[in-house]
Design brief:
The chain is α+β, with helices and mostly antiparallel strands and 213 residues long. The chain is built from seven helices and eight strands; from the N terminus they run E-H-H-E-E-E-E-E-E-H-H-H-E-H-H. It has two domains: 178 residues, START domain (Alpha-D-Glucose-1,6-Bisphosphate, Chain A, domain 4, 2-Layer Sandwich), CATH 3.30.530; 34 residues. Strands 1, 2, 3, 4, 5, 6, 7 and 8 form an eight-stranded mixed beta sheet that branches. Strand 5 and strand 6 form a beta hairpin. The longest helix is centred in the middle third of the chain and has 27 residues. The chain is globular and about 45 Å long.
């Protein structure tokens, strides 16, 4: 599936570029993600944890900068991960571009081609899309907190002390179920519009009627 997102941050393109090409800063904005190693200047290894109800899924993999074009402000990131206790996994190719919208205002647009297998894939394309929407909202809030706090410091240095604590912590895993009733509600709404769902409901009611009879 392909996911397209964009957001605007109050910072210069240079500040945003420096942030997005630093995995150690970006990972702080992704819930449940950690970097645990570096293969070379452009390839890193790490983990990300996802919780689906009582089930906790841990993915281990690597991420690589496939292209870094400073002149065009374009970065291509390739990531892959596999479940540490299962056969599922995910692969993604993310292309990000920066566009200056005003004096300290930059638009970040990203297009991700994602392939998901295993438990997350069984939830269906719509559910994966809804989860990605909620995760993206969390990520963009954290990015804004990091960049806009940094922009307010002298020389664009990384925020420290109280300023740094304003950015959401990334230690907690992604809680798929707790991302909000909106996610489950939209999924239920989609299911209700599918004829197959109503056929299944009728069959279940018919079996109950026969059993009670």
């Amino acid at each position: 599936m392909q996911i397209e997102k964009s957001f605007v941050v109050e910072a210069t393109p240079a500040e945003v570029w420096a942030f997005l090409t630093d995995p150690h800063r970006v990972v702080r904005c992704v819930p449940g993600a950690e970097i645990d190693g570096q293969i070379d200047d452009q390839t890193y290894t790490g983990t990300i944890t996802v919780k689906v109800g009582a089930i906790s899924l841990r993915y281990k993999g690597k991420v690589r900068f496939d292209r870094l074009d400073v002149a065009e402000r374009c970065a291509v990131l390739v990531a892959s991960g596999r479940e540490t206790r299962g056969k599922g996994g995910a692969d993604a190719r993310v292309t990000s571009r920066l566009l200056e919208r005003g004096p300290r205002q930059t638009e970040v647009s990203a297009v991700a081609d994602v392939t998901v297998t295993g438990l997350l894939a069984q939830m269906g394309r719509g559910m994966v899309q809804d989860v990605s929407d909620q995760l993206f909202e969390t990520f963009t809030r954290a990015v804004r907190a990091e960049l806009e706090a940094t922009a307010g410091t002298a020389g664009g240095e990384a925020p420290t002390g109280e300023t740094r604590r304003q950015a959401p912590a990334a230690a907690e895993p992604i809680e798929v179920v707790s991302l909000g009733a909106k996610v489950l509600g939209r999924a239920a709404g989609r299911a209700a519009r599918r004829p197959a769902v109503w056929i299944a409901v009728i069959l279940i009611l018919g079996l109950l009627w026969l059993w009670l009879g």
